[in-house]
Design a protein that fits this description.
By secondary structure, the chain is of the alpha+beta class. It has 14 helices and 15 strands. Among the domains are: 11-259, Amidase signature (AS) enzymes (Alpha-Beta Complex), CATH 3.90.1300.10; 311-375, no CATH class. The radius of gyration is 21 Å and the shape is globular. The two termini are 13 Å apart.
Length: 488
């Protein structure tokens, strides 16, 4: 890129170089395009290229810089997840029937990024319907992990995580309902932030051909992805805020500052096991190493607390609510089938699979009961965060695994140190933050013996996104962060 600026430079570093006139926005865009053209044949992270308009945006950024303008993302090259509407580009969510759908207008988050000066060069690949931790579909093919092309980069924002790991721009936007920001972050060794529920308006992040109406979807959020923690906070400030077309939804208040600014002042609860699924030794080892480093740095680290909500009960409730949302548009015949299967369930069966089935057939009355349970859970988390500033735990039970394209996800398994578990049961780790709507920041902390990244998530209090983001930044400064994959 330049003698002083790597293709893996952060947005913060690029911004400083732009202001110092060490590089132009056009040069940054051209270098990013060259990186995509050189490497994406084997990664397949980029599914829609928008290079010509990207260069035009970079030229406009250079002109604005020359006028002395300052905007948060001015001149920064980036990508966005395919699921965001970008005017004039396809939005498919991987559905073959929608391969010719062209968005008429930008999603609200895209408008905010462009207004902040961001230079969008491409859209990144997703799984069918955003419904997997692997990113492949019949329109755009399979996205590979830059650290091991035979493994998943994560999903559903897997194209974005692979793009960042491969040096395709400094930032990306993704979304998360079942770990879709944090899981790709973990698998590709980059940073991602799941904001507090409804903090960033989601208009225009909608499956085609549905119109981009204002509103919120329970559990689901959009959020930033980057190669450093500081860039997450920078981008969150750009996309956060309510939808002006839907007053009353979202949060207008200024987010409170981080609880602390020094590592030694934090009080952290650290978890490495879940009652319903094992954790690989490599993941537990990464937790132990970070916990030891934090303790040496003066952080108050606890391993247990009577205030921690019951993780098993929370996981079961999350499964019911999540599947109720995902199956809300099921046809009457399919819904009737779910009801018939639920009628055959043993009431004593509280396996995660049974809870998912109950969720698929949830009635409104049952939903209200579940919502009462979630409100109790939120109260428990509030009590815990009076004693702790953050909870650090795994994002998923293993590092990235080999591609597995079995169409029926209920037939897939995840190998955890030689023992197989139901693939979908991995939802329990992301669900810790998703069900109560809490902010959670995924950070890279280690590499496995196989050379695969291992990330952890920092879960913070409701609407206190700046606390896990600051802790992520301090951990990065103290112990290191993103490490580029070999060969890029």
């Amino acid at each position: 890129m330049t003698a002083s600026l790597s293709i893996f430079a952060t947005a913060t570093e690029m911004s400083a170089a732009l202001k110092a006139k060490q590089v132009s926005a056009v040069e940054l865009a051209q270098a990013t395009i060259a990186q995509i053209e050189q490497h994406d044949g084997r990664v397949n992270a980029v599914c829609v290229r928008d290079f010509a308009r990207g260069i035009d945006a970079a030229k406009a950024a250079d002109a604005a810089l020359a006028r002395g303008e300052t905007r948060p993302l001015l001149g920064i090259p980036m990508t966005v997840k395919e699921s965001f509407n970008v005017a004039g580009l396809p939005t498919t969510w991987g559905f073959p029937a929608q391969k010719d759908f062209i968005a008429a207008e930008d999603a609200l988050a895209i408008t905010r990024v462009k207004d902040a000066g961001g230079v969008i060069l491409a859209k990144t690949n997703v799984p069918l319907g955003l419904g997997d931790w692997q990113s492949y579909n019949d329109i755009y093919g399979t996205t590979n992990n830059p650290f091991d092309l035979g493994r998943t980069p994560g999903g559903s924002s897997g194209g974005s995580s692979a793009a960042l790991a491969a040096g395709y721009g400094a930032l990306s936007l993704g979304s998360d309902i079942g770990g879709s920001l944090r899981v790709p972050g973990h698998y590709c060794g980059i940073y991602a932030h799941k904001p507090t529920l409804a903090l960033a308006a989601t208009r225009g992040h909608v499956a085609p051909p549905f119109p981009p109406l204002p509103g919120t979807r329970d559990l689901s959020v959009i959020g930033p992805m980057a190669r450093c923690a500081t860039d997450l906070a920078l981008t969150l400030d750009v996309i956060a805020g309510p939808d002006p077309l839907h007053e009353g939804v979202g949060y207008k208040l200024a987010l409170p500052p981080a609880r602390h600014t020094a590592l030694k002042d934090f009080r952290v609860l650290v978890l490495d096991v879940h009652p319903l699924i094992a954790s690989a030794a490599s993941v537990r080892g990464a937790v132990e190493t970070l916990a030891a480093n934090l303790t040496k740095a003066g952080v108050v680290v606890s391993r247990t607390s009577p205030l921690l909500p019951d993780l098993a009960d929370g996981a079961r409730l999350y499964m019911r609510i999540l599947l109720a949302l995902l199956e809300a548009s099921a046809s009457p015949d399919v819904y009737a089938g779910y009801q018939a299967m639920v009628a055959q369930l043993d009431p004593a069966d509280i396996s995660l699979g049974a809870e998912r089935l109950r969720g698929a057939a949830l009635t409104h009355r049952d939903w209200l009961v579940a919502e009462t349970g979630r409100n109790r859970l939120r109260a428990q988390w509030r009590a815990l965060f009076r004693e702790f500033d953050a909870v650090i735990c795994p994002v998923m039970p293993t590092p990235a695994y080999p591609h597995d394209h079995e169409p029926d996800q209920t037939k897939r398994v995840i190998d955890i140190d030689g023992q197989n578990y139901p693939y979908v049961d991995q939802l329990v780790w992301p669900g810790i933050a998703t069900l109560p709507g809490l902010p959670s920041t995924a950070i890279p902390v280690a590499m496995s013996n196989d050379g695969l990244p291992i990330g952890l998530q920092i879960v913070g209090p409701w609407l206190e996104d700046r606390t896990p983001l600051k802790l992520a930044e301090l951990i990065e400064q103290a112990f290191g962060g993103f490490v580029p994959p070999k060969g890029f």
